[in-house]
Design goal:
Layout lengths: L4 H13 L1 E5 L6 H11 L3 E5 L4 E6 L1 H8 L1
Antiparallel strand pairs: 1-3, 2-3
């Protein structure tokens, strides 16, 4: 889990809340770079709700990773 310290915070937040909505376009911010990386590893799912909102949920692989 050390190699993913940056991803741990959003994964822990998702683990506590179930899902979050991020209000903004998926630009090149640190938050979006981290969320895209979590998605690419299968740790989280992203679902575009509108042009300005995206729902993020913790995937079962992300939950398993946090429990290791």
């Amino acid at each position: 889990m050390d190699e993913m310290a940056q991803q741990r915070l959003p994964l822990e937040l998702l683990n506590m809340s179930g899902e979050i909505a991020v209000m903004s376009a998926s630009d090149d911010s640190l938050l979006w770079a981290t969320l895209r990386e979590c998605k690419s590893h299968g740790w989280a799912t992203l679902h575009k709700l509108s042009d300005t909102a995206t729902r993020i949920r913790l995937a079962s692989t992300g939950r398993n990773l946090l429990n290791e």
